[in-house]
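A quick word before the example. In earlier lectures we treated sequence and structure as two separate objects. From today on, think of them as two lines of the same record. Here is Class I SAM-dependent methyltransferase written that way.
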Amino acid sequence: MFTPQGPTLRELAVEALSSTERGYDLLAPKFDRTPFRTPDRVLEAVEHALRPLGPFDAGLDVCCGTGAGVGVLRRLCRERVTGVDFSAGMLAEGRAAQPQTPDGPAVGWIRADARALSFRPAFDLAVSFGAFGHFLPKERPGLFAQVHSVLRPGGRFAFPVGAPPRFGSPLYCALLGFDAVMRVRNALWRPRFVMYYRTFPLPEVLDDLARTGFDVELLPLPELGRLPDGSPRCRLVVARRA
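And the structure line, produced from the sequence above:
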């Protein structure tokens, strides 16, 4: 799963026994050489689906990490792009990897908790990639409300969601096992490291978005393939502030 330039088993163990924030600070220099980084083909599929919904002036990458989503927004937004994350280490890596260019939108990197955003309603598009496992289900409505509050009327919040693995499949068992281990770890060890793969079921997510005040649609991402029944392996949730 990891390249020789990625983290060692010992480094991963130290990170997993740290807090979520401290763990990502430690992982940041090698994060882009792990499977945790959103694959380029996912980023490209999302960009392709969002482009017809523009133009966009200002974009926000929620829980931006090292800035994979910032790169998408820089190609979609005309004026400015902001990445927000609570890990100073991840922000530093993103800033170094994506320097400001004179012919693109202004890019800013802000350290903040996505559950307490302090921006005014100034963004046309917000995206997030691979971060929702760091929020407990009870925190999800508050998180969505924060994103809703920083979007202009008509602004969109978009994120990809993969189809759930088939019950009993190797992937299903692996994710179930990982979440079980994390629950035991967090019950026995402090500080907690919040990361779960099975706490973001699409029907509940759509209900939370609707209750927050979003109009929601699902767009297929055909570039990422289809399941045997013909349904897409991955969809893009596009939640519009009414």
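Notice the following. The first helix runs from residue 9 to 16. We will return to this example when we discuss secondary structure assignment.
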